[in-house]
Amino acid sequence: MSKPCPCTSKSTYDRCCQPFIDGKKSPETAALLMRSRFTAYALGKVDYLLRTTEATERAKLDREELTGYCKSVRCVSLKIISTEKGGPADDLGTVKFHASLQVNGKRQLHVELSRFVRENGAWVYVDGDSN
Questions:
Q1: For residue 53, which of 79, 28, 25, 34 has the smallest C-alpha distance?
Q2: Separation of alpha carbons 86 and 92, rounded Å
Q3: Beta bridge partners of 85
Q4: How many domains does the chain have?
Q5: What is the 3-state secondary structure (H, E, C) of 83-97?
Q6: How far, in Å, CA of 65 to CA of 68, rounded?
Q7: 3 domain residue, yes or no
Q8: What is the side-by-side strand order in the sheet with 122-130?
Q9: Is 0.85 topped by the overall pTM?
């Protein structure tokens, strides 16, 4: 039996985000990509984070810095607040979420409105506005 998925979907990791992170499936919606990226941060799956970032933004990322961030933060829970578009038939979408994080022993609530687009048919993260 697999462990609970870090994205707090109430499903197990092997039935939720693992197939996406392992490259066996692609998320059909922007919200599913958001959940799998939260899980990737929680588990330090930097390759997945890079692979699911839009090409122009991906070029700006530093692998070592991203790895360090993943090691420094504990991803506690994720709550999807709202979505706009981002469905199986859409080419763009937004997802507003609250991520409960623990950084240096202190709990933080990260609120973001994230933008997603399709790149070569797959959902990718573009950027987001944090509150």
A1: 34
A2: 5
A3: 93
A4: 1
A5: EEECCCCCCEEEEEE
A6: 5
A7: no
A8: 73-85, 92-103, 106-119, 122-130
A9: yes
Backbone angles phi, psi at 129, to 5 degrees: -110, 120
Mean pLDDT over residues 2-8, rounded? 93
* 82 strand-pairing partners: 96
65 within a domain of the structure (yes/no): yes
Residue entry with tokens 């930097």:
46
Q: Determine the structural domain holding residue 71 and report its residue range.
A: 13-130
The encoded tokens of residue 128 equal 């987001």
Q: What is the mean pLDDT of residues 14-29?
A: 97
In this structure, the chain runs to a length of 131
State the amino acid at position 68 in one-letter form: G
1 assigned to some structural domain: no
Is 118 contained in some domain?
A: yes
d(CA 44, CA 47): 9
Q: What is the pLDDT of residue 1?
A: 54
Express as a percent the part of the chain with pLDDT over 70.
99
Helix 30-43 vs helix 63-72: crossing angle, to nearest 10: 80
